[in-house]
Amino acid sequence: MLCSSAAGASAGVPAGESLVAAEPRGTIGIRLLEAPISRRGDPRALSYIIDHLHPGTVIRRKVEISNTSRKPQHVSLYPAAADVVRNGFHAPAGRPRNELVSWISLDRDSVDLPPGGTATAQVTIKVPPVASRGERFAVVWAEVAAEADDSHPVRVVNRVGIRVYLDVGPGGEPPSDFRIEKLTPMRAADGSPQLLALIRNTGGRTLDMNGALSLTNGPGGLQAGPFPADLGVTLLPGGVAPVIVTMDRRMPEGPWRGRVTLSSGMVKRAVSATFTFPASGQGFSVEPDENHLPLVGLVAGVVVPVTALGLMVRRRRRAGRARHSPRHRGRRRAAVPTS
Fold first, then answer.
1. Per-residue confidence (pLDDT) for residue 57, from 0 to 100
2. Distance (Å, rounded) from C-alpha 202 to C-alpha 237?
3. With 270 labelled, which of 27, 123, 172, 209 sits at a CA distance of 20 to 30 A?
């Protein structure tokens, strides 16, 4: 979900960034209530409207709008254009339009919510029969505005949104895939060790990258992690971008054996390499040993509630952990202070 708050005019909000106004007067939320069963293994589908449609297709998705403030809220609902700019999902301020926005409608343009109240709305996407092939981006926004007054001389707008990634074309959905091309150990300006994984989108759909790094075979046999990757990288087909993992600056330099596991939706890739963090700046890049994890298959057509879809994903993960959980863990964790 995208979040933004703005006083007066605002810059666009890239992926994952939340801008907080000095004094927001109202807290609202929006979440997706249903998603295609074909994406039951796709965590992105629990939060975003993601689909591949033939020209002439119509889909409908329910969303829930919530008011978590202590005051009644009048919430405006509308779609607006978005794009992928400099490897980030970019949602400009205001209500810009693009082709996808002209295909999106809501069954209500506003809701009035009491404190703690919720309401549902239906998002309809009608793809014209003559629509051209390609992927398009938009956001379905829920917005509250506090008008300027004597106590607050600046008009404040708060909005939250659900991203829309819609691919259009005949036949099946273009495959999603990526490759981890190299790993580079380095130091941030504050001295924190970092690992940069260079990612190339080798598929036909836009990717949102996330993942983690685990370290083994460190000094004295230490191991550490997993450390989460920094979020916010959205990669168009053919695009190349770095995904960075940042660790505690008291981490020993190494050498370490690192395993990077990255994913976007149902696609996961993992690589391993041995490296040493430099004392400062950028270290030597290494070519990783590739270990591609299997893709999750697709099942077409049915829409299910997001809560049920999430339960299926969690049960599958729990079953996998039960099968593969080791009985004993003989290696020591890294002695990194926590205070």
1. 96
2. 6
3. 172
Query: In this predicted model, what pLDDT tens digit does every residue of 251-298 receive, in sequence order?
Result: 899 999 999 999 999 999 999 999 999 999 999 999 998 755 555 444
Residues 6+ positions from 230 with CB-CB distance below 8 Å: 243, 244, 245, 246
d(CA 338, CA 249): 11
CB atoms within 10 A of CB 24: 17
Summarize pLDDT for 58-103 with one digit per residue, the tens.
999 999 999 988 899 999 999 999 999 999 999 999 999 999 999 9
Q: What does the block give as tokens for 241?
A: 């971008």
Ordered domains of the chain (ranges, CATH) = 2-168 (2.60.40.10), 178-288 (2.60.40.10)
Give the model confidence (pLDDT) of 161-204 as tens digits: 999 999 999 999 999 999 999 999 999 999 999 999 999 999 99
Alpha helices (H) in 200-324, listed in sequence order:
306-324
* Cα distance from N-terminal residue to C-terminal residue, the chain: 32
Gyration radius (Cα) of the chain, Å: 22
Helix (H, G, I), strand (E, B) or coil at 162: strand
DSSP assignment letter at 295? P
Distance CA 4, CA 94 (A): 11
- Helix (H) / strand (E) element for 169: namely none
Cα 163 to Cα 16: distance, rounded to the nearest angstrom:
11
Joined tokens for residue 3: 């979040």
Query: Which long-range CB contacts under 8 A does 303-308 form with residues at least 24 apart?
Result: 303/34, 303/35, 303/36, 303/37, 303/59, 303/61, 304/34, 304/35, 304/36, 304/37, 304/40, 305/33, 305/34, 306/31, 306/32, 306/33, 306/34, 306/35, 306/46, 307/33
DSSP state of 115: T
On whether the CB atoms of residues 154 and 145 are closer than 8 A, the answer is no
Looking at 47-112, list the stretches that DSSP marks H as alpha helix, in order from N- to C-terminal side: 99-103
User: What values do phi and psi take at 157, rounded to 5?
Assistant: -120, 125
Q: Where are the alpha helices (DSSP H) in 194-296?
A: none
| Structural tokens at position 282 | 């950028």
Sign, Cα dihedral of 12, 17, 22, 24 = positive
